[in-house]
């Protein structure tokens, strides 16, 4: 069965082409991907709303909503609205898995979060959807508004680890999602700000009004248009797009998006008359002095102390009660310590199993964290065996190769304390060198350091060592044969010279 939805009407030279509808083949879209581009005010969100409303009866949907524009779908179409600010990353991983298992359409509302937390929570939710078991690979239309926030083309003010995790999740959606039933629909204000490996996977396009030359040129290239035709994107009206792709049209086709049933919570700008007020009234409204700080109430006088005999009796009662409580808690406390030790052993075993994969060292931390949570559930440790910050520390320790017994020594605890003051991506490198220094082993090679840093580049590995030396954490030396050794500043641990290459 072929399901086609009407996204609007065909348009040509400023008017509608009769009543010919512009159709989108929904089944073809689920086998491909869609890229929507348009500057602010071009009608991009209106287009997404129309697409989702028309397809809601036919396919499960997941919406990544950074501004809270689509929460109205919960009332109109029964979507589950998840407030991302109220949930941890582990909970969102589980939500991504469960929504696929139960085929529930979801709007992930990221409103109110800063850019870093929007990236982390989106990556967690998409990761849960991506890692769902094979028997739950039902088709899902995954709509990501303002996709340049989650797959930026360049570094920004957010931490690099958060950017890489979010970019990896978006890349998985667009590159590998089709086999798992995930059909990505990404919308962006500017193509130049969207990562190329995300945009390049789309085979259907809806290009709206664009003014910058670089964006017009990229849009024309994606649609197979000549460069001299690129200026046509400046002349598009609000709500008008150029469509191309197997699910839309075999040649560039102007379309005008139809009406929608739901409304956004963010209203557009509108002109209103200014309020009329006398100058004195305006001064009072704007420059009224702030109220004085509230006067603190006086404390009530303390009651007189009890007599000495009453104090002694009360003190004896408290001592006897404390002794009984200590006796009652001794056995549970021992059990708690045993449970904590058993949990730590299981965590180390799961991390060791993950790192046996040769490619694990080069995967983003967010992907490894999702794998870790799944393995912990299999081991019966629950969904929140470790939160993300503790997982990063445990992963850095595991990558150093330290023996479990040696990890409990005061020297290693001092090494972890020194590492905590370093950026997270450099901590595994420092701990790897610190372990070799504590054990009086040869200095790790460039290949070992590169693997701990998550790269194949020996040059980047050497730069990390130079960075640690600049931070006054390590001192690097070479002997007459050019063999490198490293010493940890403070404790004075020193590696042996590395073997000759």
What layout of secondary structure does this protein have?
Elements: E1 4-12, E2 15-25, H1 26-31, E3 34-37, H2 44-55, E4 60-65, H3 73-77, E5 80-83, H4 89-101, E6 106-109, H5 115-130, E7 140-144, H6 160-176, E8 182-188, H7 196-199, E9 204-207, H8 213-223, E10 240-245, E11 249-257, H9 279-287, H10 308-355, H11 365-378, H12 388-400, H13 410-419, H14 427-438, H15 446-453, H16 458-470, E12 474-478, E13 484-488
Parallel strand pairs: 3-8, 3-9, 4-6, 4-7, 5-6, 7-8
Antiparallel strand pairs: 1-2, 1-11, 9-10, 10-11, 12-13
Helix pairs in contact: 4-5, 5-6, 10-11, 10-12, 12-14, 13-14, 14-15, 15-16
GO molecular function, one term: ATP binding
Region (Disordered): 314-334
InterPro entries: AAA+_ATPase, ATPase_Atu1862_pred, HerA-like, HerA_central, P-loop_NTPase
Q: Would you write up a description of this structure?
A:
- The model is unreliable at 13-17 (pLDDT under 50).
- With 501 residues, the chain is α/β, with parallel strands linked by helices.
- The strands form 2 sheets. An 11-stranded mixed beta sheet has the order 2-1-11-10-9-3-8-7-4-6-5.
- The protein has 2 domains: 4-257, Rossmann fold (3-Layer(aba) Sandwich); 348-488, no CATH class.
- Helix 5 runs parallel beside helix 6, helix 12 crosses helix 14 (427-438) and helix 13 (410-419) runs antiparallel to helix 14 (427-438).
- It has helices spanning 26-31, 44-55, 73-77, 89-101, 115-130, 160-176, 196-199, 213-223, 279-287, 308-355, 365-378, 388-400, 410-419, 427-438, 446-453, 458-470; strands spanning 4-12, 15-25, 34-37, 60-65, 80-83, 106-109, 140-144, 182-188, 204-207, 240-245, 249-257, 474-478, 484-488.
- 38% of the residues are buried.
- The protein is built from 16 helices and 13 strands.
């Amino acid at each position: 069965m072929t399901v086609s939805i009407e996204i609007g009407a065909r348009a040509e030279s400023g008017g509608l082409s009769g009543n010919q509808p512009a159709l989108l083949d929904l089944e073809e879209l689920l086998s491909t991907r869609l890229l929507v581009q348009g500057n602010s005010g071009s009608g991009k969100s209106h287009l997404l709303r129309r697409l989702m409303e028309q397809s809601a009866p036919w396919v499960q949907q997941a919406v990544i909503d950074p501004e809270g524009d689509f929460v109205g779908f919960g009332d109109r179409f029964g979507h589950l609205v998840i407030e991302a600010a109220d949930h941890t990353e582990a909970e969102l991983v589980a939500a991504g898995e469960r929504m696929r298992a139960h085929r529930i359409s979801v709007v992930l509302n990221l409103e109110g979060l800063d850019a870093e937390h929007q990236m982390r929570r989106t990556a967690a939710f998409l990761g849960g959807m991506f890692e769902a078991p094979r028997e739950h690979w039902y088709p899902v239309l995954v709509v990501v508004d303002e996709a340049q926030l989650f797959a930026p083309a360049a570094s920004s003010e957010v931490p690099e680890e958060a950017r890489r995790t979010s970019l990896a999740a978006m890349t998985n959606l667009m590159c590998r999602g089709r086999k798992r039933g995930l059909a990505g629909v990404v919308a962006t204000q500017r193509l130049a700000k969207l990562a190329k490996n995300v945009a390049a996977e789309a085979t259907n396009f809806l290009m709206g009004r664009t003014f910058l030359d670089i964006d017009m040129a990229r849009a024309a290239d994606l649609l197979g248009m000549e460069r001299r035709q690129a200026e046509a994107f400046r002349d598009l009206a609000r709500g008008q797009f150029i469509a191309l792709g197997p699910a839309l049209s075999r040649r560039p086709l102007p379309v005008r998006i139809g009406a929608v049933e739901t409304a956004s919570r963010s209203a557009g700008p509108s002109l209103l008359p200014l309020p009329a007020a006398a100058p004195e009234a305006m001064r009072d409204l704007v420059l009224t002095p702030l109220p004085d700080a509230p006067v603190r109430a006086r404390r009530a006088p303390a009651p007189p102390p009890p007599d000495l005999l009453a104090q002694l009796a009360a003190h004896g009662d408290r001592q006897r009660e404390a002794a009984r409580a200590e006796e009652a808690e001794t056995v549970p406390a021992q059990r708690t310590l045993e449970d904590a030790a058993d949990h730590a052993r299981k965590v180390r075993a799961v991390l060791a199993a993950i790192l046996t994969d040769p490619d694990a060292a080069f995967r983003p931390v967010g992907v490894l964290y999702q794998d870790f949570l799944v393995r912990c559930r299999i081991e019966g440790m629950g969904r929140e065996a470790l939160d993300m910050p503790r997982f990063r520390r445990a992963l850095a320790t595991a990558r150093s190769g330290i023996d479990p017994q040696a990890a409990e020594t005061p020297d290693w605890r001092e090494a972890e304390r020194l590492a905590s003051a370093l950026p997270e991506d450099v901590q595994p490198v420092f701990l790897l060198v610190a372990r070799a220094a504590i054990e009086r082993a040869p200095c790790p090679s460039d290949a070992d350091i590169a693997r701990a840093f998550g790269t194949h580049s020996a040059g980047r590995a050497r730069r990390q060592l130079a960075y640690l030396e600049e931070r006054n954490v390590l001192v690097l030396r070479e002997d007459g044969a050019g063999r490198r050794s490293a010493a940890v500043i403070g404790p004075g641990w020193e590696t042996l010279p590395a073997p000759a290459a």
